[in-house]
Design brief:
It contains 16 helices and 9 strands. A 5-stranded parallel β-sheet has the order 2-5-6-1-7. A two-stranded antiparallel ribbon has the order 3-4.
């Protein structure tokens, strides 16, 4: 039996951030949302755009492995949002003197095409202008979301495309840009973009949602089980959803037909958590193999011995960490990868289930 989605119906514990992002979008502003995976970055933008009545175009930069792929994703993202007959008419009219063609067929979705020999740089400029033209013609607000934005540097090594995109972000008046990243980089501070930082969701915000959604799915968690659940997920909604699905698969789907609610104690929750991290062990092992040994050592130390002060001499000596710039570089790289929170959140491991797995592995 397939487990329920356990996706929150609305943002959990992000009302202040929702108001902030909505205010920026309502004023046709641009922003960068920084946070680790599972912190609700994409959902935050989607709800804010809906709140201000903006149309949203999403591009996942992780899927862009080269220039051509990036252009294809950008073109597809535009048409996935603006695909009605009147909207396609507006697009076709604007493309009259552009190096793009709008293809429509009865059996296929519309798509933007261009000759193979067309200059990619000119295509990039044209595609960035198209949403502005649509917004002006339809008198609407548009939000373009670039997920995993820093990933474009894997193919844009000279950062030429990124610099031009930053210029367009500043210049366009009818289109708002929302860049989603793990950390806020220094260049953002020198721009007019607003920065929204997402830390772990507070326990007092998670608990009401947890009790509501578990009850709705036939799970009754004892108070000790609730406390243990919140300890395990450490404010990460993504890990909370994954753990809830595992608990349901382990317990709720095996209920006798005469029973409608599974009453779960802390030991039930603990066993499901260990089973889940065991299932994820191959993923976690692969992750560690991709990291330098200095970063793995920092992760292991923080998992076994959490601290707000990893730079303290006693902590460095206790866990045999590298001193000075080596440790600082390892922490900064782990923050960039979304594996560790920075100083504002006490240098915690940002993937709570990874922390549990490390604890079990090293115990």
């Amino acid at each position: 039996m397939v487990a329920p989605a356990f996706i929150p119906e609305k943002l959990v514990g992000r009302q202040a951030e929702l108001y902030q992002v909505s205010s920026v979008l309502a004023a046709d502003g641009d922003l960068l949302i920084a946070g680790v995976p599972g912190s609700g970055r994409r959902r935050l933008v989607q709800e804010a755009a809906q709140f201000v009545g903006a149309r949203i175009i999403e591009i996942d930069c992780l899927r862009a492995t080269h220039h051509q792929r990036f252009l294809t994703l950008l073109a597809a993202g535009i048409l996935s949002t603006f695909g009605t007959a009147p909207e396609l008419t507006v697009i076709r009219q604007w493309l009259t003197h552009q190096p793009l063609t709008l293809e429509t067929a009865d059996q296929s979705p519309p798509r933007l095409t261009w000759p193979t020999a067309t200059d990619e740089w000119q295509l990039f400029k044209t595609l960035l202008l198209l949403p502005q033209a649509i917004a002006e013609a339809l008198n609407c607000r548009i939000v373009i979301v670039f997920q995993s934005f820093p990933h474009i540097r894997t193919w844009d090594r000279s950062e030429q495309w990124e610099r031009y995109l930053r210029q367009e972000i500043q210049a366009q008046s009818r289109v708002s840009y929302a860049l989603i990243a793990t950390v806020a980089e220094s260049w953002v501070q020198q721009s007019e973009m607003q920065v929204v930082l997402l830390g772990p969701v507070k326990r007092e915000d998670l608990q009401p949602w947890l009790q509501h959604i578990t009850t709705a799915q036939g799970l009754q968690l004892a108070p000790a089980a609730i406390d243990l659940f919140l300890d395990y997920i450490q404010g990460n909604v993504g890990d909370a959803i994954a753990l809830l699905r595992r608990i349901w698969l382990d317990h709720a789907q095996h209920l006798p037909r005469s029973t409608t609610t599974a009453s779960l104690q802390a030991h039930h929750l603990h066993s499901s958590t260990l089973a889940l991290v065991e299932d994820l062990s191959l993923t976690f092992e692969s992750l560690l193999l991709l990291l330098p040994s200095s970063q793995v050592r920092v992760l292991e130390s923080l998992a076994l011995d959490p601290t707000d002060s990893p730079h303290a001499r006693e902590y460095i000596q206790k866990h045999h960490l590298s001193r000075g710039g080596g440790l600082q570089g390892a922490l900064a790289s782990l923050q960039q990868k979304g594996l560790v929170y920075g100083q504002d959140y006490g240098y915690r491991i940002a993937m709570p289930l990874l922390a549990v797995w490390l604890q079990q592995r090293l115990a």
